[in-house]
Amino acid sequence: MRFLSAVSALSLLNLLSPLPVLATDWSIATADNTSALADFRPLLSPEATIALRGSCLFNNLTSRWREWHAPNIAAVVQVATENDVQQVVRLASKLKIPFVARAGGHGATESLSDAKNAIQIDFRKLNQVKLNSNGKTARIGGGANVKQVIDGLEAVGKRAVTGICECVGLSAPILGGGHGWLQGQYGLAADQVVSARVVLSNGDLVTVSEKSNPDLFWAIKGAGHNFGLVTEWEYRVHDTKEHQWSYEVFIYSQDKLEALYELANKMLKDQPAEATHWGYIVKAAAIDPVHPILWFGIIYDGPTETARAYAKPFHDIEPITVQAGEGTLHDLATLTFQDADGAGCAYGLTSLRYPIGLKSYNVAAVRKVYDHIDETFQKVPEVSGSFFLLEGYSTQGVQAVDSASTAFPHRDDEILVTSYVQYTPNSTIDPIAEEFGKTLRDFLLEGSDDPEHLRAYVNYANGDEPLEAVYGWDKWRLQKLRQLKRQWDPKNTMKYYVPFV
Ligand SMILES: Cc1cc2nc3c(=O)[nH]c(=O)nc-3n(C[C@H](O)[C@H](O)[C@H](O)COP(=O)(O)OP(=O)(O)OC[C@H]3O[C@@H](n4cnc5c(N)ncnc54)[C@H](O)[C@@H]3O)c2cc1C
Ligand SMILES: *[C@@H]1O[C@H](CO)[C@@H](O)[C@H](O)[C@H]1NC(C)=O
Ligand SMILES: *[C@@H]1O[C@H](CO)[C@@H](O)[C@H](O)[C@H]1NC(C)=O
Ligand SMILES: *[C@@H]1O[C@H](CO)[C@@H](O)[C@H](O)[C@H]1NC(C)=O
């Protein structure tokens, strides 16, 4: 990565608590202390592993981005084959043991904590990335994470729509829609799926595509966490480009907020498909020890000159610093604190998100958000490592797809905003943090195009939102989902990720 000038590390980085150090005892717990689990072993491939509570392996495999309100896991089955998934699901369903899929471990929504004494079906060994001979699609395992997909494709000269954060899984974002840098050009992650191999709650395996089980194919592109476990995706890929990505990061003091977000509104109107606006409101003690700063990045899939020309107006509102450069997708992840070593991948903090989809910025509402953040950080320093994320992805590719053709209901939104209220786990802070996050979202909702109808991305959903806010206010959407649910998961076994039955 090439820096033309650099800012000092933000407090976001300092907030990282070290990961827990594990003992080197890697002895795998045997499954023979419960009769139920003993039944699993003979059904599984030799490469599959089972880990029970109390073992080091168990602790390693169950630790996640947010432990707060996490699923309560009794045993982990690390599956190694598609048949392993089928066997575990079949037996767990028969024995009525709840199960939850696990890939990147960044899932964080209230209903996950409804899973009690559950089996974690751990997909992380199913992480293959293989280019098909047509050069247009790849087969990607249901447990691959963003970094594995990016690296695996880059090695064969390809790229695909993925999320930003390197350690987040690929599957869960797809199942809920899936936002990323390339969506303006190619559409959502869900739009890249040609077919998927899905294990149903009875253990049966089905293939879904436009031709095969098209109704289930529709459902897994937006409401997929509730329908089945995906062992493999057939996923669209594109040739990598000659040039690197270009970026400029502007740091502004708070008095520039109105000018910045008015300009962003203006520029979002004809934002090129290659450009992303990425904003944080965050404390950067090295720049301002008291008040949060405005971090604003223009990420551009194009040559530096084009990117600089596009971002020029942001120079005119007098940033404190500008950091400009070019780099790979990995460099972009680092730049936005979402690389494997960055804040986005750190485990162990309590983190609360309250997402809202918007058509444009109501600048007065963004001001209210800022002022409330500033005041709260001073009053409750425990939460002052939180950040507020304003994602202005380009949307051409997303809007090119017919909205009714997938379960993802928010194609008309231009901006995705959420707080990440983060702090060292502390039950005294929990209610304060919840109130804080809700208040920030309410400011934006009140100032939005449609204050009666919140729109909340399922993959960010806190879990307190009305179901219509998550799955769509058009009545037919939830009706259709519930009807499909009766057909494909009649016992509602898959109900731990924003369930609608
Ligand atoms: C730091 C951070 C950055 C993020 N960046 C982005 C982003 O750039 N774009 C975006 O769209 N979202 C993003 N998200 C949101 C993300 O989509 C969700 O948090 C998602 O649930 C994480 O998936 P995971 O595999 O990491 O988590 P997990 O907890 O492993 O999985 C979450 C849920 O997905 C389901 N699931 C996982 N694997 C499978 C499978 N193979 N088959 C069926 N169901 C499965 C299960 O229901 C599981 O409970 C981000 C989240 C965080 C915390
Ligand atoms: C297995 O046995 C140990 C020791 O008796 C116990 O602590 C643990 O809870 C058991 N595991 C399960 C899944 O029952
Ligand atoms: C789990 O173990 C792996 C392999 O040693 C290690 O890379 C990883 O950091 C561990 N994860 C946690 C959360 O401890
Ligand atoms: C939790 O937060 C409260 C309120 O700020 C504080 O008094 C307390 O010391 C914190 N507890 C821990 C364990 O950090």
TrEMBL record:
Presence of the UniProt keyword Transport in the record: no
UniProt entry tagged with the keyword Oxidoreductase: yes
Transmembrane segments: none
Start and end residues of each FAD-binding PCMH-type domain: 69-240
InterPro entries given in the database record: BBE, FAD-bd_PCMH, FAD-bd_PCMH-like_sf, FAD-bd_PCMH_sub2, FAD-linked_Oxidoreductase, Oxid_FAD_bind_N
Cofactors, names only: FAD
Signal peptide start and end residues: 1-23
UniProt xrefs under PROSITE patterns: FAD_PCMH (PS51387)
Coiled coil: none
Gene Ontology MF terms in the entry: FAD binding; oxidoreductase activity
Descriptive protein name: FAD-binding PCMH-type domain-containing protein
Protein species of origin: Xylaria grammica
